[in-house]
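Need C-alpha cells for this chain, all 141 residues.
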Amino acid sequence: MADSTLWWLAAGALVAAELVTGTFYLLMLAVGLMAAALAAHAGASTTWQWVAAALVGGGSTLLWRAFKRSRPSAAPARANHDVNMDIGETVHVAAFNDDGSCSVHYRGARWDASLAAGEVATGGVYRITEVVGSRLILKKN
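Here are the C-alpha cells for all 141 residues:
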C-alpha cells in the first residue's frame, strides 16, 4: 500500500473520531495528515511526510487555540441575548417592594422581577440583564 493511502486513511479516521467526540482539534490534526498525504503524492521521503504532518497539524492546532483564546467568552445562558430573547429588553417599574422585588408587565403577562446587585430601588425604566428561572433581573436603563 502506498504511503499516501496510509496518510489518507489516518486522516479519515481522525475526521471520524472528530464526528464522534466533537473535538475540533482533531480536524486540525487531520489537516496535518492530509498535508503528509500530499507530500507523499509529491514524492517526498517518509521523514518529510512526518515533518509536513507535524508542522501543518501542530501549527493549525496552535493557531486555532490562539484564535479561541483571543475571543471573549460567551455570557452564561441566563444572561446571553443569543440564548434568551428577553435579555436587553426594557420594562417599566412603578414601585419596588421593601426587599427589592417587584412585579412588572412584560410580553402580555405579569412577571416577578428583582434588582441586580448594587442597583437602587427607584421607579422607572429598567433593562433586563438576566432571567433566573421565571424571575427577571433588572438594571437601571
